[in-house]
Amino acid sequence: MAKKAINPTKSLKIPAIIIISAKICALFSTKLVTKFAARIFTTPIKHKVPKRELEMDAKSIQKQIYVPAINKNIVTYLYGQSDRKILLVHGWSGRGTQLFKIADELLQNGYSTVSFDAPAHGKSEGNTTIMSEFIASVLELEKQFGPFEIAIGHSLGGMSVLNAIKDGLQVNKAVIIGSGDIVQDILDEFILKLKLKKDIGNHLKDLFEKKHQVKMDDFSAYRAAQKIKIPVLVIHDNDDPEVPVKAGVHIHQNLENGSLFLTEGLGHRKILGNHNVIKKILAFIENS
């Protein structure tokens, strides 16, 4: 997410009680409000599985697997029986069944899908997580269920797919939908929504880097894109209120073998079920 979302009135809002709590913390100390912000930033919302996803939930073979790299268990979904497997990666506060319309079309075209509830999401254990745990989960899924022909990721899942490929995930092609780009922009947008001073975003970055011994910008999607050689389809909506379209455009500019497909009026989530989007994905996958 960038520093200011397009049409922010349509973007997800942080509950007032959390904003008030953040402001109270800020009155005491920068350190306290930074820790509070870090906790909120790493705590996804676990939504109930909506009715539209129940068929995929019921027909999937579900299995809990252990991810040694992060010492956590996650729930996986194997949907379909084909040996031609495609990996699906949901975004923040999503679920392994969230890309069900894409999965259904893939099944009808001879593929099966493997997806998962990321740590602290859906049926997986835990309350907090970060993108590096998404990436570690993807790489473990490849070991246990791969090889995958294609990887498809939405939002944070798109960033995770690109980073996983950079870190060794072997796929022929990738599709990212509504993907975030620059990590500092995402932090700054989050701080903006909390109605805190902008410099708290820098403190938040420093806290994460010290805690996890990483450079946050190393996880930015454009940086991963620079190291990827395979074909990547970047899909983004011009009216996305949560991840501005400039994120997708910038990622595309940094890909050696990228294609860009921009949509209108689909926002951040409706895009996942749009017929033209799914048709574009299938054409990209099947075009040798």
TrEMBL record:
It comes from the Bacteria. Residues 225-286 form the Peptidase S33 tripeptidyl aminopeptidase-like C-terminal domain. GO terms for molecular function: hydrolase activity. It holds the Pfam family Abhydrolase_6. InterPro entries: AB_hydrolase, AB_hydrolase_1, AB_hydrolase_fold, Pept_S33_TAP-like_C. Keywords: Hydrolase. Residues 86-179 form the AB hydrolase-1 domain. This is Alpha/beta hydrolase.
